[in-house]
Amino acid sequence: MNEKSGIYKVKDLSLSKAGAMRIEWAESRMPVLMALREQYRRSKPLKGFRIAGCLHVTKETAVLVKTFVEAGADVSWSGCNPLSTQDDVAAALAADGTSIYAWHGMNVNDFYWCIDETLKFKPNLTLDDGADLIFTVHNKHQELIPEIIGGTEETTTGVHRLRAMAKAGALKYPVVAVNDAETKWDFDNVYGTGQSTLDGILRATSVLLAGKNIVVAGFGHCGRGVALRAKGLGANVIVTEVKPTAALKATLEGFRVMAMDDAAKIGDVFITATGVKDVIIDRHFRVMKDGAIVCNTGHYDCEVNLKHLESMKKRVREVRADNEEYTLKDGRKIFVLAKGRLVNLAAAEGHPSEVMDMSFANQFMSQLRLAELHRKGQKLENKVYDIPPEQDQEIAALKLKTMGYRIDSLTREQVKYQSDFSAGT
Ligand code: RBV
Predict the structure, then answer these.
(1) 12 C-beta neighbours (distance < 10 Å), count
(2) Pairing of the two strands 256-257 and 313-320
(3) Is any atom of ligand 1 closer than 6 Å to the C-beta of 341?
(4) Is the pTM of this model over 0.85?
(5) Is 331 helix (H, G, I), strand (E, B) or coil?
(6) Which atom of ligand 1 is nearest to 349's Cα?
(7) Over the stretch 311-343, which tens digit does the pLDDT of each residue have?
(8) Pocket flag, ligand 1, residue 362 (CB < 6 Å)
(9) Model confidence over 221-278: pLDDT tens digits?
């Protein structure tokens, strides 16, 4: 472990060269964020702002962090999952002089220690993925709240929890729901999760997906993405749901829908993407086929109840990286990937750079807007805010341009027609 008190703690600083190369690769695939970096490099609109971030330390996140720094911000960062840090990327950020506390495979105590370290630097803006940083501020470091202008939240689970907090009157500063931007959830959650989840499963198992019964629990944006991509690889996809409308959509997309009790008996690979706990529990493990593979792509590791599996096991051993074989007392083997944590980030590299380009452009613009409103003396309420709709169109237009696509625009007559309620047959 390499450590510099008050600045960083990372696994191995000597990995920094490899990390820098990986970051450079991501930069070449994130043209929208890079355009924003270029736009604000000279004016430095974030000068004087201190951002504490708690978000997976990946090559894409590094591009975001470097963009904040180029725009003048001081940054202190931790990872938002004990298994998602890319140690070479963390080393590269540390070598660059960025304050960062993150390493792969940390325990839960270390996880909160890292967050505490980033808070020592007294941020006035926070950036979360899952709301652990905001919760830590609210529960343990209320003394920091008067200085904090606002925060942003990256993911569905975090936004749900923050909306619940706001409803209960417990939220003490404004937060922008970056997840709810159309250029975030309709791309990152669907295509990002779809591809990276299968990427994680393949790296951990290298099994053939064609012809397998793949059970996807949850048909929200993430589950839908996983189901679509698994179907594309020739799997027989089965969806489990609790929400009738979501289940209905899954059937009309051509997926088989059934209760987990039935799916458990026939699934070859199980992927949870629900955001709730105990989706797969002892009675499901009891009926699974010998050799079944189980993993999770929801934010927390509570979707698959591993305590139940532990209590049924005779022995466990790691058979490949991120792949543990549980031999049960009746002799069956069940394989658990990435300890039930986000398989896409723990066993692979998270979502591809191209899609994070839009998510992180939203993060950057939202942090910038919080800073600008503050500078103008405009005070926001302690609520969860959506991003302005223009931001979505701006980011989408820029993304299309970088991809080389040109689209049409409405004529003046067409605009008039759209708002004319007297027109008919
Ligand atoms: N996520 N980040 C990455 N490559 O940096 N991959 C996925 C990356 C984010 C994604 O935006 C999602 O909302 C969140 O991780 C779940 O924790």
Answers:
(1) 15
(2) unpaired
(3) no
(4) yes
(5) coil
(6) 4
(7) 999 999 999 999 999 999 999 999 999 999 999
(8) no
(9) 999 999 999 999 999 999 999 999 999 999 999 999 999 999 999 999 999 999 999 9
